Amino acid sequence: MRQGVLSIDLGTMGVKLSLVSLEGEIQKSAYTEYPIISESPGQAEQDSALWWEGIIDCVKKLTDSDNNLPHLIKAISICGQMHTHVYLDSEDKPIGPSITWLDQRSSEIIEEWQSDGRAARLFDLTWNFPTTTYAAPQICWVKKHRPGVFSRTKSILIAKDYIKFLLTGNKVTDPSDASGTAVFDIRTNQWSREALELIDLDGDLLPEVIPSARIIGHVTEKAARETGLIQGTPVVNGGSDHSVAELGSGLLGEGEVSCIVGTAGVVAACTSKPVIDPKKRIMCWSYPLEGYWDILGITQTAASSLTWFRNTFDKERNSEVFDEYSSLAKGVSLGSEGLVFLPYLMGERTPLWDSKARGVFFGLTMKHSKAHMVRAIMEGVSFSIKDCMKVVEELGVKFDSVNVMGGGSKSPIWRKIQSDVYGKKVRTLETQDTGAIGNLILALLATNEIGDPREAARLIRHVETVIPDPIRAKKYENLFGIYKEIYENTRSIMEKLEAYTYE
Asked: What is the pTM of this model?
């Protein structure tokens, strides 16, 4: 085993540690899960102690067969779930559970801000519209409903920043995670004093913001004793999990676009200037690379649409059924013989932001089979992602290729459908663990192993490029128009169905 970087990816459902060589080879990985606490409507919390225990467990798993592994770690680089945050008291001990990005209880705060104009003003100040996902509305909810917790709170840290604090004793965050609070000005990469005053939040509760590719401290004696890591190992500031994964997928500068076809679909573009969308369809957050920003379009239900189909109609089958689905879809012609699927199984985000949107199979006839439905799902999800791409292009980002990741990138026929629907080259990557590669790149920059992000291009290894067929792309463009029309003509009907959803 060679010297490398220890990548920590603090996810929503578990933490993954990987030793990545300086050449980009993931040499060894370990993973530990932890639960979400959901005991009341809208609640989604976690015990932050389990994050730390998960890291200790993963280090143990990594070193079980090689006690020398900690000595091979040149630096530790970390990414993690956005928005989720920890409340610390005067002794830096967590006060109760951490509120995660999935928690929806701050909806009342958002409604209040929307009614009194503060939401619109926050958009002007930060170039991002606040939602229940963001940390600041959740903090205001705690202030209102858990005054005992809030009165004892002396500092608030995003999840991965809390782990960095446990490792180094230093409280800092980075621009990519700060962007997800609703009180961070992405234009200046600083906390917005006016935004903080607007919602009556003390800015002293929040940590200093410094660039992602910086060493923020070193593993302390206490942390080394608890984890088995080596005291003095440098720790990199890091970034949000999705943005670091984008970095590892090849978003090393302007004009690059990545697409995650996972549980949700995420279209991400790198730009050298912050972008505002007056129609509030996309998000623009600061990127882990200095001088760059991250334009994000998110479709709510991507590869999980096909998972829903499996769970509903093939619930006794394991994941191997997806290979069968690919074969079925390959045998069906473009357009699924007039069957169109709208993948709004959990509402839709970009560009609709319609929580009442519903999934639709439109055009069903007696000739349609399971195979047609599978292909229609693949096409419909691709249309939904194309909808995001259209907004990104409208805002001035030009691109002719897309790096694809996630479950939807594993099927050859789905990759071909995506290329023809997008009208773009679709490139797949050697590794799906792009978060680990992104953590490596940040560590190489932080330790001055490389001076420019473009030097990391050698670490991004493409294994296939699918070229769009112009004739098929034109047909899909016409079908995309029908897809859009179906939603526009059924939107009001979908809203009427809301009354029957929970009966």
From this structure: 0.88
